[in-house]
Here is the input.
Amino acid sequence: MEDGFSSYSSLYDTSSLLQFCNDDSASAASSMEVTDRIASLEQRVQMQEDDIQLLKSALADVVRRLNITEEQQAVLNRKGPTKDH
Here is the structure.
């Protein structure tokens, strides 16, 4: 039975990957790309955290309004029917 890696060697050319990993200039460029990517992802996470806070605030407002409506409905139900109904 073949090991797991030898079956992949025919599918993927790893020589260019090894050359890329061993090239210092590519490594420096890659480092900058990684740094830029991390900064971009951190900015995205911050924006998503802001969106989550807005959604939490909106949800809290909806729940508050729903509670008020339910309380008003309960008060009206306790009073009984009005002359109009």
Summary: The chain has a mean pLDDT of 80. Residues 29 and 35 are 10 Å apart (CA to CA). The helical segments are 4-9, 15-22, 24-79.
